[in-house]
Design goal:
Elements lengths: L7 E3 L1 H13 L2 H7 L7 E3 L2 E7 L8 H6 L4 H13 L5 E8 L1 E3 L3 H12 L4 E10 L1 H6 L4 E4 L5 E3 L11 H6 L24 H26 L3 H4 L7 E3 H6 L5 E2 L2 H6 L26 H17 L4 H11 L1 H11 L6
Parallel strand pairs: 3-4, 4-6, 6-7, 6-8, 7-10
Antiparallel strand pairs: 1-5, 2-3, 8-9
Helix pairs in contact: 4-5, 12-13, 12-14, 13-14
Length: 333
């Protein structure tokens, strides 16, 4: 079972999928297999650091089950590349729904610090959500490998279960002995009061405020511009580019081939008045196909059909219109 009472910076749909996978896993087999964290590699003078799966501070069941990264492992790889005189830039290859709060701040600070010495570029090959986007935002530049790569989910979540009434029905009364009225907030069997909720919400808000501040600083945008984007929603590459959350759409091959990627220390802190234009002029059929592809991708990520089509329609309104038009009889068009 997931440690849901921890504070998480993770896409909620991903959290549910991981919980289901853990419930079905053979833990005995996993423990025998051990843990091997995804390794980075060097291509010429560029160090590639992989950031994948649900992020935790140190190796856990998550890392064994999903072959995922840890903040400790990512930090070690980045520091090793920073100290290597043969490496002149670092590429973070990211495909992660986020992870725990614990560990993300230190790793983000390291990325920002190294980026002042050597260019650090984040390449999103799939998803950079929540904690993963926190890390990406500290790089000098962020690129998505395709139009359906997605970033965002800027927010914090924590789930508690109040089973006190169920236990009471079964004749079970928890006896909690502690040293203060906040010491056992969220403890199993203890009723969650309005005061408890306010206390927990205040803690969540502290993390959320830091999250927004870090992203705004890293992306060099006013906090007032970021706040409307920090509602927990995800953005496909086109919308993310328009909102200043990424710097463009480039394949990993294109990023590796480019030698013009600079760190914030060497590039202007001012963003262009208008964002670089996304490819224009697609046909209605192409728009409809893009919308349908986004819809199917959302479904594959665990969304309900209704939510999947709603999210795709939000991110690709023109594609949604084109798709709806394509479903109508020709005489009604």
């Amino acid at each position: 079972m997931l440690p849901s009472d921890d504070k998480w910076l993770i896409d909620p749909a991903a959290m549910e999928r991981y919980a289901a996978a853990i419930a079905a896993a053979d833990l005995a087999v996993l423990s025998r297999q051990g843990f091997t964290e995804p390794k980075g590699r060097t291509e010429g003078a560029t160090a590639l650091v992989h950031i994948s799966g649900p992020l935790t501070k140190n190796p856990t069941l998550f890392t064994m089950l999903f072959n995922a990264s840890t903040y400790a492992g990512v930090s070690e790889a980045i520091q090793r590349a920073a100290d290597n005189p043969a490496v002149d830039r670092i590429v973070l290859l990211i495909d992660s729904p986020g992870g725990t709060v614990d560990g993300v701040q230190e790793t983000g600070k390291l990325i920002a610090e190294v980026n002042r010495k050597k260019p650090v570029v984040a390449v999103v090959d799939g998803v950079a959500a929540s904690a993963a986007y926190w890390l990406a935002s500290q790089a000098g530049q962020i690129y998505a490998t395709g139009t359906l790569s997605a970033v965002g989910s800027i927010g914090v979540r924590m789930t508690l279960f109040d089973v006190s009434k169920q236990l009471a029905k079964e004749g079970v009364r928890p006896v909690i002995i502690d040293t203060g009225n906040k010491k056992s907030v969220g403890a199993f069997g203890r009723a969650i009061t309005d005061a408890d909720r306010e206390y927990i919400q205040n803690r969540i808000n502290v993390v959320f405020d830091e999250f927004q501040s870090v992203v705004a600083t890293g992306r060099k945008m006013p906090l007032s511009r970021l706040k409307p984007l920090a509602d927990g929603g995800m953005f496909y590459a086109g919308e993310a580019l328009q909102n200043g959350l990424i710097d463009g759409v480039k394949s990993l091959r294109e990023v590796l081939a480019s030698r013009s990627l600079a760190s914030p220390a060497t590039r202007s802190t001012a963003r262009p008045a208008t964002q670089p234009a996304v490819k224009t002029g697609p046909t209605p059929a192409e728009l409809a196909a893009k919308f349908e592809k986004a819809w199917q991708l959302n479904k594959s990520r665990g969304m309900s059909p209704t939510k999947a089509i709603s999210r795709a329609a939000t991110n690709y309104p023109e594609g949604h219109k084109a798709w709806l038009a394509s479903q109508q009889p020709k005489g009604n068009r």
